[in-house]
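Researcher: We're teaching a course module on how sequence relates to structure. For the next exercise, students receive a sequence and then see the predicted structure as tokens, so they can try to spot secondary structure elements on their own. Here is the exercise chain.
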Amino acid sequence: MSLHHPTARAVAAASVAWMGMVALGPAAAGDGIAPGSYCRLPEPGEEPECLDPARQEYGDFFSALAEGLVDDHTAARVEADVVDDADPEGAYLALSSLSYAYYVLAQRMAAEPGADPALVARLERWNGVLARAFESSADDPRYRNAVREAASDLHGRTRVRVGCVDARGNPAECDSTESVLRGFDATSHDVGIRGALERLIERMNGDPSS
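Model: And here is the predicted structure for the students to work with:
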């Protein structure tokens, strides 16, 4: 087909646009995380520019993180905003902030001889925050996917041992967000099974929409 043909020109234009989007990739958020976006963890030694809006929103939290003084008080607002995604932009900023802080503390923990109980407890608490965020976002699949992305990002970039519950529900030790991701999969599986049963019941009851 000649490029002079209208369809060919449209395909060529779409291809160029797609290539431009691929070239930009995650760097498109370089000037700041866009609403509805999760800021992925940086490479070692890098400062992610996409965290700039989060730093402005949660200045006290990032200041405490830099000083190694993150406590329940400074983390409370971030944790609450991660779980409550009523404000979409705020939820993504909070999720990116918590994920980055988790990464920083895990790197600090891995570099120290012996596990600092306070750091272990903080990461275990944040595993619980991620789990609650996933459970509470059933009506917002986009944000739920971002929570899963954050947990996967952390699991791929951090290797620290924290307390967790194994697949049988017994106390155990897991790598960073390992148990969180396992819980996500279990939740998704249960939801899928419930959905299939509901559709089956609807068909049995003669619901024409099913």
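Model: If you want an answer key for the exercise: Residues 1-32, 189-202 have pLDDT under 50 and may be disordered. The longest strand covers residues 161-165.
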